[in-house]
């Protein structure tokens, strides 16, 4: 039986974003990745425009994480880990 969860990989850009997060937000991000996105990556909001093909998941009121899904390999690529509202 295939594994039911997805592997999460973090891109260099997301790695830099994560370094700017507070310890509290890093913990929240880790929980979202392990408890939500790795279990069911399609629960995020499907993005359009420049980010078409990616998904967004709320981290805080203004911050989002942006990720893409490789369904064949069952890998989620974390692309961004902060707001995409120009901050």
Element string (H = helix, E = strand) = EHHEEEE
In CATH, the homologous superfamily goes by the name: RelE-like
- In helices, the fraction of residues equals 25-40%
- Overall mean pLDDT stands at 91
What gyration radius follows from the Cα positions, in whole Å?
Answer: 12 Å
Distance between the termini: 43 Å
Number of domains: 1
Identify the CATH architecture: 2-Layer Sandwich
- Work out the number of β strands: 5
Characterize the largest beta sheet: strand count, sense, and whether it forms a barrel: 5 strands, mixed
Q: By helix and strand content, what is the structural category?
A: alpha+beta
Catalogue the unreliable spans: none
Number of helices: 2
**Looking at CATH, which topology would you report?**
YaeB-like fold
- Order of strands, main sheet, comes to 1-5-4-3-2
If you had to describe this structure to a student in words, what would you say it looks like?
With 87 residues, this protein is α+β, with helices and mostly antiparallel strands. The protein has a single domain, classed as RelE-like (YaeB-like fold, 2-Layer Sandwich), CATH 3.30.2310. Helices cover 26% and strands 28% of the residues. The protein has two helices and five strands; from the N terminus they run βααββββ. The protein has a five-stranded mixed sheet. β3 and β4 form a beta hairpin. The longest helix has 15 residues. The mean pLDDT is 91.
């Amino acid at each position: 039986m295939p594994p039911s969860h997805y592997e999460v990989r973090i891109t260099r850009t997301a790695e830099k974003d994560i370094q700017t997060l507070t310890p509290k937000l890093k913990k929240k991000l880790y929980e979202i990745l392990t408890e939500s996105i790795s279990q069911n990556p399609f629960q995020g909001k499907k993005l359009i425009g420049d980010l078409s093909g990616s998904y967004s998941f709320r981290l805080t009121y203004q911050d989002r994480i942006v990720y893409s899904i490789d369904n064949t390999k069952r890998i989620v690529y974390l692309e961004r880990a902060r707001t995409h509202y120009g901050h």
